[in-house]
Design goal:
The chain has 207 residues and is mostly helical. Helix content is 69%, strand content 0%. It is built from 10 helices and no strands.
Length: 207
C-alpha cells in the first residue's frame, strides 16, 4: 500500500459498495480450536496478526499500549473460544473485540492518536515492483508519500480513520464495519467514503 505506485492505486480500488472476498475457513478454524485443535488457532493467528496489529497500532499510536492491547485481544479470543458462535465472519468478530478494547483504552487515556506508516516487516518484497521500491530515488519518493499519507490519516476524524483501517487492514465490508463499530451501515459507508475521498485528494499532488 505504501510503495509510490500502489498508494493511489489501492485507494482507487477501494470498493465501498461491495463486500471483500471472504477468507476461507476462519469460522471453521475457530470452531476447531474451540474443540481443542491448537493448530487451528495457529492458522488463525498467522492470517490475522499483521492486519490486527496495524489497526490497533495506528489507532492508539503508542507502541507499548499497542502491544498490550494486541495481546489482550488475542487473550480474549482464547478465553471466548468455548462461547464462539459463527454468527458473523470471524474477522468481524475479531475486529469488534479490538474496537471495543480500543474504546476502553481511549476512555482511560488522554494521549493523542498517532498513526505509523513505516514499512510492514511482514510484507514480502520479491516482485519487480517491490525491488524497484528499494532503489534510492524510489525510497525517497516512497518516504514522501508515506509522510503525506501519515499526515492525511492523522488529520481524518477518528471514526473515518477507523472505517478506512477496518476496510484496508481487516478486510471488512461496509456492513461488517458497521457491526464492529456499533453504527448503521449508512454511517459506516459515509465514513469510509469521506476517508477515501480525502486521502485521494491529498495524494494527488504526489501522484
Amino acid at each position: 500500500m505504501y510503495a509510490p505506485q500502489s498508494a493511489s492505486a489501492r485507494l482507487a480500488r477501494v470498493n465501498i459498495g461491495n463486500a471483500p472476498d471472504e477468507p476461507s475457513g476462519d469460522e471453521d478454524l475457530m470452531q476447531r480450536y474451540a474443540g481443542g485443535d491448537a493448530a487451528a488457532f495457529e492458522q488463525l493467528y498467522a492470517r490475522h496478526r499483521g492486519g490486527l496489529y496495524r489497526y490497533i497500532a495506528r489507532q492508539c499510536g503508542d507502541r507499548a499500549a499497542a502491544e498490550e492491547l494486541y495481546q489482550d485481544v488475542w487473550s480474549r479470543v482464547i478465553e471466548a473460544r468455548a462461547r464462539y458462535r459463527a454468527e458473523a465472519r470471524f474477522a468481524t468478530w475479531l475486529y469488534t473485540l479490538a474496537h471495543n478494547r480500543l474504546i476502553d483504552w481511549y476512555r482511560k487515556s488522554s494521549r493523542v492518536v498517532w498513526v505509523d506508516f513505516g514499512r510492514d516487516d511482514d510484507a514480502p518484497e520479491t516482485d519487480i515492483a517491490a525491488q524497484r521500491h528499494w532503489q534510492p530515488e524510489v525510497r525517497t519518493e516512497s518516504r514522501q508519500i508515506a509522510q503525506t499519507l501519515l499526515a492525511l490519516l492523522d488529520a481524518l476524524p477518528p471514526p473515518q480513520r477507523e472505517a478506512f483501517l477496518l476496510h484496508e487492514e481487516g478486510g471488512l465490508s461496509v456492513e461488517e464495519i458497521a457491526a464492529a463499530t456499533g453504527t448503521r451501515a449508512e454511517t459506516a459507508k459515509s465514513r469510509l467514503r469521506y476517508a477515501v475521498a480525502k486521502l485521494r485528494c491529498g495524494l494527488q499532488e504526489l501522484i
